[in-house]
Design a protein that fits this description.
The first copy, chain A, is an alpha/beta fold. Helices cover about 25% and strands about 35% of the residues of chain A. Chain A contains six helices and 15 strands. Chains in contact: A-B, A-D, B-C, C-D.
Chain lengths: ~260, ~260, ~260, ~260
């Protein structure tokens, strides 16, 4: 009755909070790290959460990947939407099981995977991506995260228009979100929600201006910072470094135009 | 086909980001604010998102409440778990549609409502609350948020034990989370996740120590800060005041004990 | 040999960190608070640091005011430069005993008082203020802070030019700092420092552009946040509220133009 | 009349905000960087602020070092008191020209240099350091910063007692500040100020407890965060990384014991 690791499952090999590896369990493969290699075949039929030693004796734990792990591992170093931001985007967008969501751009599919995870099984994500070279990567990541069935990837320019109607949310993580605001207004159900994530203040200002001119209310922009704590009896303190900025989240609700 | 406001629906009357009111649409009722009153009957059969004038001419918008609104409006001033924290707790816990979750304490049901919203329709929340006086309030809030069917409220002391087995997450927002760690270990599926939210550093230290002694790995503590921005062409700046602290989030994964 | 409170000295009456009063010790006066009144004459010839009871039995402490107290008490609610910002402005400007400093605008003299305090006795502050109505308030505050002798207040528009040459720093807390950058370049000693404090990002961008075009290097902008901690055994945590924003500090060094 | 660079002066060679070098101008020396070398002799008799090309054509600026530069360059990577913290310590301590200050530990002399800079020429810093191996480094750094004449370095254990009386401030950056609180009370003028800087919350709690038991009031603890901004037209945003923690600053004023 306890869930076992099966061949071709993905496991998260955990060494430390900063050293985790998302790997596919193939029976004949070895997975090599700076701490020696692990024979992946040994994991088959074991329980998730089991400890396993590498060839050099380092202890790893074979964890079942969660949505946060798929998000983290779907990203390229260059443009990261952090789990903290994704968590807030999901909460502020109001989406949940059954929601229909338009998203752009798809990128590597990290945010897409999260959206699909929370709207499944009866909801759906329509994700727009103009850069063809991302489509395959996104598909691979969405498949690995077990959410590909809830996503339609569209190789289209969302600044030209949105095909869907009566959607529950439009969520943007792209260079020119302000060009999508009037299309988002058309696509959204009345009273539904627009969310945009932008690294720069300039993008944010343009987006807010477009929202004000297009019948949105409750327009709010904020940023989110997380700071790790080092918890040790007698030595407790915040961690030394933190991410100072990922992006600004702008949120608004559609209202009937006057 | 467009969704209409029906009698006995809840609407969020929006005046400004800081002035919103969650009210039940009763045909004969007036809703009074410092900006005059609104005849609620006038909203019936209107579209969500409609603008409506109060008796003094102030313009309100009748929005469809989202999960974030239900959370905000479920809380008493005294002990608030903020949407930002709830968003992160949900993301880090790994729960989603279909998950089975144990939570304590229920309190006014704000976090419970969020958990139920994200696990529905096939998942379930088992929430423990020792203080009987909260049960009725929680029920009312969960009913209003349309998630009561996905929740079992238990008037029991979780520090004495957890009835459920093989759950996907144990989520705590209570005074003594460290007393629940060993029970959480028993209740969790292998490799599944424990999350605790505590205002003080002392609670956090005790909880982390208990996690270290009870077979959890990937133990991480962090805090989340959100800062609002005032976006106005020529006058853009962060807002003047912010919440400096709500609580520390501690997260861990169950592993097989050695 | 221990310093005594004399008639007409200012004392800081301390009730709690948030309840302090800067008052002049006049022999026949009573000082009234919400916790009863204090007969100021009783303080004469007492040691600084003495505890004194109000008419209702509340205990106050008669402290010797420090520069930080004079700063805090010189300000109007509407436009506050916080001690944290003043501290950083002083440190980054490189000024110290003997420095000659140009400042604008004077306002109520809070920043002026700090600058004068740190450059005295052999340095001097030349402070420009175009709004005549501030001059008297500034004089009063600078006199009370015992630094009026180290300050020249000029009722002049600094955007029209700076009279001084070879100064060690130009420090601006005014609406249009970018209009002063070229004058600052003329007034500064080679290699000396420009600092500007602005609430909005728009002011900051214009100022940085002007600095880049006017022979400055090492141009840096940052913001400073302070967060109070509640330290209590068993209940230690950050405070609930904090100031989220006062202003951006922009800093640069003059170099020879190419 | 313009200040010239003289032989044996220190200059700050500036390449970028993150690439600066504090070097002594020796006529026959070359200073080597990853961007080629600079013939230091060429700087003699030049104006501060001059631009100079390295052997590979990279442009450096020869700046006059300020107190902040001496602080930064006095530190070892391992234990840094940041200029932001030093600025706040100075401001909150109330010291200025003429103040007499007790400090511990000396370490590499970074904080000592700042304190001496602000109390000179008529004030003095008495700095305690138990670790003999630091004394020579501190002397060298204080000499380079031109403040050695205002400092007495004492190779003594301050937890055993403070020799000085009637000082204006006691400032601690050491492992066990709570062991110094009662000595600080004896050494301070009535109403004068104690400041302590500690990386961990545990040190801070012990120190606050000692202050409460030893006749101090206005006890406050806070932390300071600075966040850099990238200011570029069209691309303005906070920087990606920041220091999340250096230490907690605890501040208190001596009052007469009851």
């Amino acid at each position: 009755m306890v869930e076992k690791i099966k061949e071709n499952d993905y496991v998260l090999l955990y060494l430390s909070p900063k050293r985790t590896y998302l790997v596919k369990v193939e029976r004949e493969k070895e997975f090599h790290t700076h701490k020696g290699f692990i024979k992946l075949g040994e994991l088959v039929d074991k329980e998730y959460g089991i400890r396993i030693s590498s060839s050099t004796g380092a202890e790893f734990v074979a964890l079942k990947p969660k949505i946060r792990d798929y998000i983290f591992k779907s990203q390229r170093r260059t443009q990261i939407t952090y789990p903290k931001d994704i968590a807030l985007i999901v909460m502020f967008s109001g989406i949940g099981p059954g929601s229909h969501v338009v998203e752009a751009g798809t990128g590597t599919g990290a945010l897409t995977a999260a959206l699909a995870f929370y709207v499944k099984p009866s909801g759906h994500v329509y994700t727009y991506e103009i850069r063809e070279e991302f489509i395959e990567t996104a598909k691979k990541n969405l498949t690995r995260a077990n959410v590909i069935n809830y996503v339609e990837i569209k190789n289209k320019d969302i600044t030209k228009g949105i095909d869907e109607k009566e959607v529950d949310a439009v969520i943007l993580d792209m260079a020119t979100p302000w060009l999508v605001v009037s299309h988002a207004y058309q696509a959204l159900k009345p009273s539904s929600i627009f969310v945009s994530f932008s690294p720069t203040i300039d993008q944010t200002i343009k987006t807010v201006e477009a929202l004000e001119q297009n019948g949105f209310v409750d327009i709010q922009t904020f940023e989110c910072l997380t700071r790790g704590m080092q918890i040790k009896p007698g030595k407790t303190r915040p961690q030394t470094l933190m991410t100072a900025h990922t992006g600004y989240i702008t949120y608004a609700r559609k209202t009937k135009k006057q």
